Design the sequence.
């Protein structure tokens, strides 16, 4: 078999897997979306108030918080994974949570990974709102709260872009969830490939294990779905960026 | 006439620079008071102080005797910036803004927005996106936004500086109309001397952060008390 045949065979088999709605592949996709989606929602609920607090309030430790956000934006996922792992292992300080190798642990790791990113991008979006807009709110009799609301409206596309950037990073990341989630699937076999349904196995972690097992067509199918998701998120982000 | 605003011994410093010093001034109810002076004289800073936007280093400002509860004082005033910021929204939402933050009833808002747009000569454009207006229209819309809630004092920072003659005339008409119909007190900063001749009642000349003369319009143009005022008005001052 030539290398071209090998690839073509792989792609054909991969498309079959996708379009037959293979349960193994579907369960992995579901876990990816569930984990990264939940992490993004939680991170957004933290990041947006945080970005507004940093932009509008004076408090002690603000400069330190900004430094933390900036540093956190570039953290390597494996480092975050290792850090969370050390916290939640049974002998670790948060061992009582008993969440090692669960989706909760994966959500926690991705939450830590993307909250600084969403905060940082939201901060620049808020900063880009002209000072004169906020002053206009005050001259027209608005309160601090009105100024925050108006800023949120003016910066809305930038903030949506920030959230999508977080989601994109979470979906594409492999290091953190591999360490704390363990890439676990149930025992047995579904749909004739791989193992049982996914417990903590995501698109990215499954690609690493399927590829090293040599199951190229499954990897291609997973890769294809991953790229579609990430591309979709990026296209949306681009769309909102352009509306600014 | 009744005194509305009193400024006493006001000083404002930015960094090393004393931008305003020893400003004493009364603004009377219902008058059109114009500050004139070259750019950099401190006109904008003085208007911002009057709107309680900046905190003076020395002295104080009283509005009807009050100088605390700033949000309440500010809600009886309106400051129109030289380059107004337009909210990324419809003309209606822009003009209605000051009424909405005051919790005014929806029906009243609709009527007042319509009235304000009529006054500035932009009737019926409520639905248009405000960021698509031309320069002159945007300035007039900002004017409508500033008067929609009937402020007692309207502070105008060079409201015609970037406009063509036709729009300048329109804005001047609007200023006179607001004062005559609603009794609004107008404080205007400008470096346009002919404009002062056309619309002001009283004039203050601001040079390098100092209010060198306050006089009636007639007084300032016929017998100014300060030689520098005379030079400035006659266009002999190099700046
Ligand atoms: N926020 C500020 N920080 C520092 N300097 C300022 C600030 N605002 C104004 N100034 C300075 O104060 C002086 C007066 O400015 P301004 O009040 O804008 O004058 P005008 O409106 O008469 O042109 C100028 O020298 C200007 O550079
Ligand atoms: Mg100015």
Sequence:
């Amino acid at each position: 078999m030539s290398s071209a045949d090998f690839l073509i065979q792989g792609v054909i088999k991969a498309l079959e897997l996708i379009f037959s709605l293979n349960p193994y592949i579907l369960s992995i996709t579901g876990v990816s979306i569930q984990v990264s989606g939940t992490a993004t929602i939680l991170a957004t609920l933290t990041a947006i108030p945080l970005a507004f607090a940093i932009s509008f309030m004076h408090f002690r430790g603000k400069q330190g918080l900004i430094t933390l956000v900036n540093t956190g934006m570039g953290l390597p996922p494996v480092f975050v994974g290792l850090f969370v792992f050390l916290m939640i292992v049974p002998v670790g300080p948060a061992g009582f949570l008993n969440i090692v190798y669960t989706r909760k642990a994966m959500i926690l790791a991705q939450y830590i990974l993307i909250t600084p990113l969403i905060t940082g991008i939201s901060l620049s979006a808020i900063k880009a709102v002209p000072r004169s807009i906020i002053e206009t709110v005050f001259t027209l009799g608005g309160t601090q709260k009105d100024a925050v609301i108006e800023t949120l409206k003016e910066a809305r596309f930038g903030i949506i872009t920030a959230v999508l950037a977080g989601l994109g990073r979470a979906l594409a990341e492999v290091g953190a969830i591999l360490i704390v989630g363990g890439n676990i699937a149930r025992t047995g076999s579904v749909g004739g490939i791989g193992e049982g349904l996914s417990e903590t196995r995501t698109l990215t972690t499954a690609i690493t294990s399927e590829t090293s097992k040599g199951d190229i067509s499954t990897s291609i199918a997973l890769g294809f779905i991953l790229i579609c998701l990430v591309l979709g998120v990026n296209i949306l982000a681009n769309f909102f960026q352009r509306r600014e | 006439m009744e005194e509305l605003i009193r400024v006493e011994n006001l000083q404002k410093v930015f960094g090393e620079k004393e931008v305003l010093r020893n400003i004493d001034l009364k603004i009377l109810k219902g008058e059109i008071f114009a500050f004139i002076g070259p750019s950099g004289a401190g006109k904008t800073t003085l208007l911002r102080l009057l709107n309680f936007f900046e905190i003076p280093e020395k002295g104080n400002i009283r509005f009807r005797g009050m100088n605390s509860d700033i949000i309440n004082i500010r809600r009886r005033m309106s400051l129109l910036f030289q380059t107004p910021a337009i909210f990324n929204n419809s003309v209606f939402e822009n003009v209605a803004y000051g009424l909405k933050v005051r919790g005014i009833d929806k029906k009243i808002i609709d009527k007042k927005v319509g009235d304000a747009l009529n006054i500035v000569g932009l009737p019926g454009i409520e639905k248009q996106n405000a960021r698509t207006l031309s320069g002159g229209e945007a300035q007039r819309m900002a004017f409508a936004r500033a008067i929609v809630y009937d402020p007692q004092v309207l502070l105008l920072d060079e409201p015609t500086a970037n406009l063509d003659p036709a729009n300048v005339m329109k804005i001047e008409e609007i200023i006179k109309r607001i004062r005559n119909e609603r009794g609004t007190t107008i404080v205007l900063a400008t470096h346009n001397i002919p404009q002062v001749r056309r619309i002001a009642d009283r004039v203050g000349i601001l040079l390098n952060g100092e209010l060198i003369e306050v006089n009636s319009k007639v007084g300032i143009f016929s017998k100014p008390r300060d030689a520098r005022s005379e030079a400035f008005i006659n266009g002999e001052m190099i700046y």
